[in-house]
Amino acid sequence: MNTSLIQKYNVAGPRYTSYPTVPYWDEASFNISAYEQSLLTTFAETNRAEGISLYIHLPFCEQLCTFCGCNKRITKRHEVEAPYIETLLKEWQLYCDLLPEKPIIKEIHLGGGTPTFFAPYRLQFLIDSIISNAKLAVNFEFSFEGHPNNTTEAHLQTLFDLGFRRVSYGVQDYNFNIQKAIHRIQPFENVKRVTELARKIGYTSVGHDLIFGLPFQTEADVVNTINHTNLLQPDRIAFYSYAHVPWIKGNGQRGFKDEDLPSAESKRQQYETGKRLLEEIGYIEIGMDHFALETDSLFKATENGNLHRNFMGYSASKTSVMIGLGVSSISDSWLGFAQNEKNIEDYSQKVNKGDLPIFRGHILTPEDVVIRKHILNLMCNFSTQWEDDDLKFSQLPDVLIALKPFELDHLLTINAESIEVHNQGKPFIRNICMAFDLRLKAHQPKTQLFSMTI
C-alpha cells in the first residue's frame, strides 16, 4: 500500500456500527417516550415480515484483557449469575409488555464480557425464558461469543440444543509474548479443542476473531497466527484493527506503552499481509475486517445483497428492530437508538423499579435516516447511489466535493448518481463514510473520540 496514502488518511474516525455515531447523539432532546413510540412504529411495520434481533450483553469476566474495549465487570464470584439473569428477564418482560403482539425473533446474539462465564444451565434458563414470550422466525439464527479457555462441551451442547448454530472465539494472536501483554493467555490447543468440539456437535459456522496492530506484534506474528488458523479452517474470520482508546477505556488499555504499538505503516502492512494470506487459503473479504468461506452464510448474504451492519457488527440478515438487553446494550428501532445504563447497579435498580434501563439515546431526523442508508450501503456493499428520491439530501454536493480527493487518489469513482469504491479504496472505507457524516463535519471534536482509521 502507498505509504503516503496511509499518512494522508490515517486519522481518528468512527467504525460506523450506527449513524449518527454515539458521540453525536442528540441526548438533550431525547426522551424514552419518543424512543418507545419509534420502536412501536417500526415494530408494527416489520415484525411479521422481518422479525427482530436480540443482543444480550453478559458482562462478567474472570480476568481483564487489556486489548478489550467492551463493557465488563471483572469477578470470580459466580453467584452474580442468577440475579443478573433475573434482571435480564425482567427487562425482556418490560419490552414484551410494551409491544402489541409477540415478537418474532430472527436473531439472538450473546455477547460480553464472557458469555461462557455463565454456567450452561443458567444460559439454558435465560434462552428458554426469552423464547417463551416470543415466536421464532422460520430461519432464525442464534450465535454466541465463546472464550477458548472456558467454553466447555456442556456450553456448546446446551446452546446447540437451544438452536444456536454459530459460535465465535476470540483468538487475537498466538504469540505468547503478545498474549502476555494483552493479558489473554490461550494456547493453540485450547482453540483447537473448542473449534473441533463445536464442529463435532454440529455448529454450521465457527468463527475466529483475530486482531492486528497489537502491542509488540509484527508482520511475522500475523503470518504465524494465520498459518495456525488455516489448520482449523474456521468458517468466518473477523480480522480487526486493534482500537487503542485508553482515554475512553481507562486503565484497561494502559497495560503497555504507546511506543509498544506498531506504527501506522507497520499496522497496515500486517493487515495487507493477513488479507493476502487469507485470500490464498480460500477466504473472501466481506465488508470491512471480515472474511468468510464461500459456504458460510456471511458470504451468501453478500452475494444476495442481504449483508447488514449494526451494533453487533456484520449480520447475514437485516432486521429493522434490534433490542439490546443487559447493561450498556444499545437498542435500535431504525428511527432511534437507546443505550442502557453502563453500571450494573444502576441498570438493575431501574429494571427492578419497572422502568426500561435507558440512560441516553437519539431520535433520528429524516436527514439522519438518509445518511444512515448511504453509510450502510458503503459499509456493506462498497457503493451507494442517489437515483432514488429517498437517498437524496441537500448537502450531497458538499459530500461529493469532500470525496473528490479519494477519486483523485484512485480509491473510488464518482458517477452521475452513484459512487463505487475500488478494491484499493476498501481499506479507507471509514474515511469515505466520514465524508457523508454531516454531524461529524458540523461539530469537529476538540479531543480524540475515535480510534485511528488505518
Name its key features.
454 residues, 21% strand, nine-stranded mixed β-sheet, Arc Repressor Mutant, subunit A, 39% helix
Walkthrough of the structure:
44% of the residues are buried. The model has no long low-confidence stretch (mean pLDDT 94). This protein has a 9-stranded mixed β-sheet with strand order 9-10-8-7-6-5-4-1-13, with helices on both faces. It is globular and about 55 Å long. It has 2 domains: 1-20 and 365-454, Arc Repressor Mutant, subunit A; 28-325, tm_1862 like domain (pyruvate-formate lyase- activating enzyme, Alpha-Beta Horseshoe). It has 454 residues and is of the alpha/beta class. It has helices at 3-9, 32-50, 81-98, 120-131, 153-161, 176-181, 188-201, 219-232, 246-249, 264-280, 297-304, 344-352, 366-381, 396-408, 429-434, 438-442; strands at residues 52-58, 60-61, 73-74, 104-112, 135-146, 164-172, 205-212, 236-241, 284-286, 290-292, 308-310, 313-315, 322-325, 330-332, 336-340, 358-363, 383-385, 412-414, 418-421. The chain has 16 helices and 19 strands.
Write the layout of secondary structure elements.
Blueprint: H1 3-9, H2 32-50, E1 52-58, E2 60-61, E3 73-74, H3 81-98, E4 104-112, H4 120-131, E5 135-146, H5 153-161, E6 164-172, H6 176-181, H7 188-201, E7 205-212, H8 219-232, E8 236-241, H9 246-249, H10 264-280, E9 284-286, E10 290-292, H11 297-304, E11 308-310, E12 313-315, E13 322-325, E14 330-332, E15 336-340, H12 344-352, E16 358-363, H13 366-381, E17 383-385, H14 396-408, E18 412-414, E19 418-421, H15 429-434, H16 438-442
Parallel strand pairs: 1-4, 1-13, 2-3, 4-5, 5-6, 6-7, 7-8
Antiparallel strand pairs: 8-10, 9-10, 11-12, 14-15, 15-16, 17-19, 18-19
